[in-house]
Design a protein that fits this description.
Layout: E1 2-7, H1 17-25, E2 28-35, H2 47-65, E3 72-75, H3 78-89, E4 93-97, H4 102-115, E5 119-122, H5 144-152, H6 193-196, H7 203-216, H8 221-224, H9 238-242, H10 248-262, H11 265-287, H12 309-317, H13 323-335, H14 340-353, H15 358-368, H16 374-385, H17 400-407, H18 412-417, H19 426-429, H20 437-442, H21 458-472
Parallel strand pairs: 1-2, 1-4, 2-3, 4-5
Helix pairs in contact: 3-4, 5-11, 10-11, 11-16, 13-14, 14-16, 15-16
The chain binds flavin-adenine dinucleotide.
Length: about 475
């Protein structure tokens, strides 16, 4: 008999527990992806995510065809589409992956009520079962350290499952939309040229990224993860993990084996810690569904955020006059991705120096990141904003010049993304406004003409933020 496999953020065939369970119990599988834009949430897919999704679905469709199956694409209201597909195929059950996005969880409940057949959910996108990670008194963790310790005390994540050799499908598959008709790719202007050079969406692309990272880089990860100018300092698996083209279990086990082989204990400790941050963000969202919109600490609700249209545009376009901030924002625009250290610096600059709300920054990242993830993005912006459950204190303000000098000492990162500063000596690269005229002249640079003057004074911006915090955060 037939089962429907409803795919969402789990666009893969290997280590897919919902697919494996469906194959165990049912002979014939109908894999379906529904592009549901009827949902009125403000977190509709951003532009970069749409680009990724197009290519990822194309890759998944090809992988299914190799296994005598095909991907059914439908656009519209998930509830009615899945109800109709169950009727049309005579399916006796629906299988899907567990999700942590609140709207997707309620949508799954609504589908369950409507389809009239059992709906089976399996964990596909976290290492540990959120229900099993409880404090001694049975509550939820709100701080990363104890959460991570509780995870590490659990039995190891299950061994990954191989992709099935074949996925039998009914003789007559339901009709599918043509992917190209969905218009997920950018029209004119096409901003995605820098995406093509960096990414191969799909399971094979994810596997390649994982293998190349584990081959050379895991040992030094503890240090290299903080060097944005090192193009292989981190795994760059985040969009693949977000779309579920690879499971955290697969990454966990492969990294652990590589670390054992190379005796790279410290690399493993830091890397597995980041994978647990990924689980922790999902966990936080699951138990705090308002996290993308509201500060988790209510005391922060009254901060007097500024509306600064021109400043916001300068930040988005990488034209603030602060080199490390501009390099990061340009990397984001060009490749749909930004190094973690620089995400922290650019976010802190917006929220603290510019005093623009973390929600505005969160929305821009959500639109432009290929790894835009409701949970991790919200948790990270709240962390920077000081209002998350587990946060950088608001009064600790990243100084972008010091950060630049520490993490990009040879200027490799800034020179790559802000080439107009290329000729400046290292000493002045992160603070061109402090360079003597003679140095600027020698580098052929006129500030305000070739590169912007800073949009604000860093000391004054910092003081303004601290002032607002003292006055408006209850109990500060
Ligand atoms: P690696 O260093 O190789 O880490 C491996 C994996 O661990 C990552 O792929 C990711 O899944 C996870 N991970 C790493 N760092 C973090 C972290 N700080 N929090 C949670 N998980 C982590 N990450 C997203 O996936 N989507 C987002 O929308 C997102 N928004 C962010 C916004 C801000 C303001 C900040 C400061 C961070 C954000 N991050 C986000 C977290 C982090 O920057 C990225 O996960 C990381 O840069 C991805 O690169 P990588 O795959 O090479 O990471």
């Amino acid at each position: 008999s037939v089962a429907i496999l409803w795919l969402r953020h789990d666009l893969r065939l290997s280590d897919h527990r919902a697919l494996a369970a469906a194959l165990d119990e049912f002979g014939l599988i109908v894999p379906v992806f529904v592009l549901d834009e009827s949902d009125e949430n403000r977190w509709a897919l951003g532009g970069a995510s749409r680009w990724w999704l197009h290519h990822s679905l194309a890759a998944l469709g090809a992988a299914l065809r190799k296994r005598q199956s095909e991907l059914v694409l439908r656009r519209g209201d998930s509830v009615s589409i899945l109800r109709d597909l169950v009727r049309e195929t005579g399916a006796a059950a629906l299988f899907c992956g567990e999700t942590h996005e609140p709207w997707l969880r309620s949508l799954t409940d609504a589908v369950e009520k409507a389809v009239g057949v059992p709906v089976h959910r399996r964990r596909v996108s976290t290492l540990f079962d959120a229900e099993a990670i409880r404090t001694k008194s049975g509550g939820q963790y709100s701080v990363y350290g104890p959460f991570a310790r509780a995870c590490r005390a659990q039995p190891e994540p299950e061994d990954p499952l191989p992709a099935p050799q074949s996925i039998p499908s009914p003789k007559r598959m339901p009709r599918s939309d043509a992917l190209d008709d969905w218009g997920l790719l950018p029209k004119k202007p096409d901003w995605s040229g820098g995406f093509d050079t960096m990414w191969t969406p799909g399971e094979a692309g994810a596997d390649k990224k994982l293998k190349s990272f584990l081959k050379d880089r895991l040992d030094g990860y503890g240090a290299s993860r903080n060097v944005p100018g090192d193009p292989q300092g981190t795994s760059m698996l985040s969009p693949h993990l977000h779309w579920g083209e690879i499971s955290p279990n697969q990454v966990w086990h492969a990294a652990k084996q590589a670390a054992d082989r190379k005796k790279a204990k410290s690399g493993w400790d830091s890397f597995s810690g980041e994978l647990l941050w990924h689980d922790f963000s999902a966990y936080l969202l699951r138990y705090n569904p308002e996290m993308p919109e509201k500060p988790l600490r209510a005391a922060y609700a009254k901060l007097p955020w500024r509306r600064d249209k021109a400043g916001m545009r300068a930040w988005q376009q990488g034209r603030t006059g602060i080199p490390i901030v501009d390099a990061g924002m340009r990397q984001l625009w060009r490749h749909g991705w930004m190094h973690n250290r620089v995400r922290m610096i650019t976010a802190s600059f917006l929220v603290k120096h510019m005093l623009v709300s973390w929600q505005d920054g969160e929305a821009w990242f959500f639109d432009t990141l290929v790894d835009a993830d409701l949970a991790t993005n919200a948790a990270s912006w709240q962390w920077i904003g000081g209002c998350g459950t587990d946060s950088q204190p608001f009064f600790r303000v990243f100084n972008p010049v010091t950060q630049g000098k520490t993490h990009d000492p040879d200027g490799r990162y800034v020179r790559h993304y802000v080439p107009e500063l290329k000729a400046l000596p290292d000493r002045w690269l992160h603070c061109p406004w402090q360079a003597p005229q003679s140095v600027l002249g020698k580098a052929g640079l006129v500030l305000g003409r070739d590169y912007p003057k800073p949009i604000l004074d860093l000391d004054r911006g910092r003081d303004r933020a601290l002032d607002a915090y003292r006055k408006h955060v209850r109990g500060a």
